[in-house]
Amino acid sequence: xxxxxxxxxxxxxxxVLVMGLSAWAASSWYPVPGMCGRRAAERDxxxxxYKVVRFGITAPALPYFSALLGEKYGVKVDAWPxxxxxxxxxDYADAYDAVSEAAIRQRFGHDVVGEAWQEAVATLQTTHxxx
Length: 131
Hints:
Blueprint: H1 3-29, H2 32-46, E1 50-55, H3 62-73, E2 75-80, H4 87-108, H5 112-129
Helix pairs in contact: 2-4, 3-5
């Protein structure tokens, strides 16, 4: 093989390698927010911080929900506006909550997050019905 052919073969090999690495990077980037969310939840739990993240939560019910979780169980609520959330942020929050809610359920023996939400909505409905 002459020098020109060797250069062409190397250039084509390099191009294939670059395209392959680009495809791999694009496909492996997507789970990064989820991995970060899981790791953040694990770190918080190791420090004894129990927290859930919510997007687009109904604003009037949020104070009741946060108060119930905080006062009864010591669980914090981070509420993020859904209208400005990117897919990456939603992936992060979903992964965070998957880890944190499982730990919260294990600690208290039942779904305190779901129960607090139902109680908050019921309280809100009762409050508005009496006005």
